[in-house]
Prior knowledge:
The structure holds 2 protein chains of 2 kinds.
Chain A: H1 2-8, E1 9-20, E2 23-34, E3 38-42, H2 49-55, E4 66-74, E5 77-78, H3 85-91, E6 92-95, H4 106-116, H5 122-135, H6 139-142, H7 155-167, E7 173-177, H8 185-198, E8 203-207, H9 211-217, E9 220-225, E10 228-234, H10 235-240, H11 245-251
Parallel strand pairs in A: 3-8, 3-9, 6-7, 7-8
Antiparallel strand pairs in A: 1-2, 1-4, 4-5, 9-10
Chain B: H1 2-35, H2 41-45, H3 57-88, H4 93-107, H5 110-124, H6 131-155, H7 159-166, H8 172-201, H9 204-210, H10 227-238, H11 241-274
Helix pairs in contact in B: 1-11, 3-6, 3-8, 4-6, 5-6, 5-9, 6-8, 6-9, 7-8, 8-11, 10-11
Amino acid sequence: MEQRKQDTAIINVRDLNLFYGEKQALFGVDLVISEKEVTALIGPSGCGKSTFLRTLNRMNDLIDGVKITGDVVIDHENIYKSNDVIKLRTKVGMVFQKPNLFPMSIYDNVAYGPRMQGIKNKKELNIIVEESLRSAAIWDEVKDRLKTSALGLSGGQQQRVCIARAIAMKPDIILMDEPTSALDPISTLKIEELINNMKQDYTIVIVTHNMQQAARISDKTAFFLNGEVVEYDDTDNIFSTPQDQRTEDYVTGRFG
Amino acid sequence: MRQFKDNFFRGLLWLSAILSVAVLVMIVGFIFYKGIGLISFDFIFGDYSPAGGGGIWPMIITTIYTVLISLVIATPIGILAAVYLQEYAKQGRLVRLIRFATESLTGIPSIIYGLFGAVFFVTTLKLGMSILAASLTLTIIVLPVIIRTTEEALKTVPRSYREGSLALGTTKLQTLYKVILPSSMPGILSGIILSVGRIVGESAAIFLTAGTVAAMPDSILSSARTLTVHAYLVTQESGDIELAAAVGIVLIVIILAINLSATYISKKFNKATNK
């Protein structure tokens, strides 16, 4: 069992510390994330779970004054040692809290990433767009209106197009930062089903403030508190037999 | 009593609105009343004759020249500067200083720019009183306008667009080019339009740098007069209010056309981007 975990590890984080200026936000995070599994990051607001997620595709680089120590190894490459952020982000896609489609057509949104990589062939793009939208379970809803503005879609549809946009890059890993927090229950359910299907092909790391969601969709769960990982285990164990008192208090709803 | 206060305040608001519209109507009405009699095909498209009765075509051409030359120089520099300040520069003391400087520049009376232009462009750079010297002076006048409006437009682009684009493995330049600039285009355009208005309406700075030669310019190195300078001079020299008013009508129509096209263009852009 231990051996298998080693083989399938795709993300390996060791002693990761992150500072916003003087303020430390992550404290010695160690986490090994397995391939083609859904890993949920849970914890109260401000516990560092989103910050941690954003270290995995170096999104924190955009913020002035962020300093990071420790190692994040993705696919055998230490992402803070190599300087190819562009390549990293093509392998590690991201879906954000609120749908953030560009003010362009649905087609152009999904084709955006591949086009920026230099794919110009129309047939090739058509195939990528269709496959991506199908994988994101939104093709049937939008196939007749691909050329209309993506911003005319409902929030739930937009978020699935965002997932399609990430899929279009054919990434290995998809990071999701509370992807359903701005959506209604039905749209949330659709996205959750989608995530369940997607783990056949992708490694998914999802931040959620919704513990039921973590329990429903994830294989492993990491509980963050004040910038530290308190407990990291199979999701079933975290919710049924947590080892740490703080984890138990949190998952049973005593705080957070 | 509270009801009365409410009504009184409402009346005050209404009065202020009416007053400002009335002033506008009065001015436009006065100018049209005085000048409309002179407006004719020959007046607009005819060559100027010092003896009187000629047209203002040379002034229209001069005005168009100054607008075009100033914008061709100011627009790219202004947009690039704004992009640097907003997107690339580390927000610190230097950037604050540059911002403060551009803000201060917008407040300086145009006659000061005119004096600077007359000394620097006309004399030091030996451009002489010319359309080029005036255009360069106008470039300095509108540059802060373009920088400010472009910066404001860039600020309105949601952070989530930038993040969404960068998260797809694009470079900063690609993100700028494909997402940020298109989204801020309506704002940038309105800055350019505002600049056109500023240039067309400018007189003091042009008077001091382009001179007053009332003839069709041979080249951009010729001295010439724009519409506003012409309106000023005919009032000043011959007290010909009718002629000045007729020039005023042409100016008003030009400004109106610019504003309408601006609204149209930004609507079109909004349609393309929003829905």
